[in-house]
């Protein structure tokens, strides 16, 4: 409905304005209802639509209550608002020429057909030149360490959409928006490839797995024991880059905590409280390696197109 389209456009503009003023700010549901002056059901419907499209993120703080509590625009949503056509697939124009038989035979002359073929050929050549130019630009940006990896990912997504490379589009969108791991036990669930564990998408996503160091205090001991544990870094690429830049040149590693329930064996074997927050740390180098591996995947993506 046209009315819903206008509402969705307004929602994106509100979220865009909020993010441009503070990248960490999330707009509350009540603020959206007040500014849009629409029923809650209408807001939930359009928020759900934008979330499924990947234009926004909507979070719910509790298991009960409204559909969402806060929302924020994604980088795909920003590109849509700014009119960069990043999320609009470019469908090549079709040229179907039919020569009519019978009384009208010859309406399209041989000269006309030759002219049409020449125009089609010229258009294809121009499109190929544009793609070749784009590839050359991306390769140059890949080797320029002053350009954020997230910007190169956006360039590659634009190219993948133009060439209708569906698997690569899916992977690049995950990198930009993050991997929605909440409530999921396996990475295959997140990617939708549980029936195909040899999926190229799964292999690319595994570049984000790092070896963290878990610190856990055994009963009857005073000093925590440290052991390695694989952790998947799921948040958006831009946030990952920001964290890497924040710790660059500093001696400290990245530290955080995870529920004991997410640590295999912690509850059953070590008898920990499932809600206990277990400290862990990830080295700076591991975080930087994620970005390096993503750049390597982008280079493989470009080389595949060139072939």
Summarize the structure.
The chain has helices at residues 2-21, 29-36, 40-53, 75-81, 110-142, 149-162, 166-177, 187-191, 200-205, 237-247, 284-306; strands spanning 27-28, 56-59, 70-73, 209-216, 225-232, 254-259, 277-282.
Describe this structure in words.
- It contains eleven helices and seven strands.
- With 307 residues, the protein is an alpha+beta fold.
- Helix 1 (2-21) crosses helix 3 and helix 6 packs parallel to helix 11 (284-306).
- Residues 84-108 have low confidence and may be disordered.
- The protein is 50% helix and 12% strand.
- The protein has two domains: 2-81, Orthogonal Bundle (Arc Repressor Mutant, subunit A), CATH 1.10.10; 124-307, no CATH class.
- The chain has a four-stranded antiparallel β-sheet.
- It is globular.
- The chain has helices at 2-21, 29-36, 40-53, 75-81, 110-142, 149-162, 166-177, 187-191, 200-205, 237-247, 284-306, and strands at 27-28, 56-59, 70-73, 209-216, 225-232, 254-259, 277-282.
Radius of gyration: 25 Å
Strand order of the largest sheet: 5-4-7-6
Average pLDDT figure: 77
Shape: globular
Number of domains: 2
Number of β-strand runs: 7
What sequence of helices (H) and strands (E) makes up the elements? HEHHEEHHHHHHEEHEEH
Distance between the termini: 43 Å
The total of helices stands at 11
Low-confidence stretches: 84-108
Structure classification: alpha+beta
Roughly what fraction of the amino acids lie in strands? 5-15%
For the sheet with most strands, the description reads: 4 strands, antiparallel
